[in-house]
């Protein structure tokens, strides 16, 4: 089973400014209501440690592998719950430069695996609200 979660927001700042905030992982605890921390070498092929706290959900820690890191453009990782194929998530941040010098920030995840249907309600409720809360805070910070 596959489930996609897609959120986006227009930010009145350049992709460079948004990227600067998005990749200052040490500052996440100060502003990010969803991704409470991201640790490790964020390089393609490397494993990182991500702590999330969805609204009205319990905190979780994942150890995904970075699969894309394109400065000012995209950061993507792939994680697995327990073992590959049960509940896999491809998390993506994409920054698109608009002609008016704003940025469309796309925050999405593609879920696959045997347990996706069991977590579908949580994805649509808690996870979506977590993505949207993070997007709003990123926008506020970038537009200061």
pLDDT < 50 stretches? none
The SSE string, one letter per element, is EHHEEEEEEEH
Number of domains: 1
Strand order of the largest sheet: 1-8-7-6-5
Task: Briefly note the structural class of the backbone.
Answer: alpha+beta
CATH class: Alpha Beta
- Could you say what the CATH architecture is? 2-Layer Sandwich
Q: Work out the radius of gyration.
A: 15 Å
Question: What portion of residues belong to β-strands?
Answer: 35-45%
List how many beta strands DSSP finds: 8
Distance between the termini: 41 Å
Overall residue-averaged pLDDT value: 95
Helical stretch tally: 3
The CATH superfamily is known as: START domain
What is the CATH topology assignment?
Alpha-D-Glucose-1,6-Bisphosphate, Chain A, domain 4
Shape verdict: globular
Helix content: 25-40%
Q: What about the largest sheet?
A: 5 strands, antiparallel
Could you characterize what this model shows?
The model has no long low-confidence stretch (mean pLDDT 95). The chain has a single domain (2-142), classed as START domain (Alpha-D-Glucose-1,6-Bisphosphate, Chain A, domain 4). A hairpin with a 7-residue loop joins strand 6 (74-80) and strand 7 (88-97). It has three helices and eight strands; from the N terminus they run E-H-H-E-E-E-E-E-E-E-H. The N and C termini lie far apart (41 Å). It is of the alpha+beta class and 144 residues long. The radius of gyration is 15 Å and the shape is globular. Strands 1-8-7-6-5 form a five-stranded antiparallel beta sheet, covered by helices on one side. A three-stranded antiparallel beta sheet has the order 2-3-4, with no helix packed on it.
């Amino acid at each position: 089973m596959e489930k996609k979660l897609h959120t986006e927001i227009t930010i009145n700042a350049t992709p460079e400014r948004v990227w600067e905030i998005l990749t200052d992982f040490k500052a996440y605890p100060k502003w990010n209501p969803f991704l409470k921390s991201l640790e490790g070498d964020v390089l393609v092929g490397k494993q990182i440690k991500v702590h999330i706290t969805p609204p009205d959900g319990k905190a979780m820690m994942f150890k995904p592998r970075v699969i894309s890191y394109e400065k000012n453009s995209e950061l993507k990782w792939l994680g697995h719950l327990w073992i590959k194929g049960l509940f896999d998530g491809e998390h993506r941040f994409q920054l698109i430069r608009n002609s008016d010098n704003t940025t469309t920030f796309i925050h999405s995840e593609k879920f696959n695996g045997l347990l996706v249907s069991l977590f579908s309600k949580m994805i649509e409720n808690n996870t979506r609200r977590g993505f949207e809360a993070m997007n709003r805070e990123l926008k506020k910070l970038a537009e200061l």
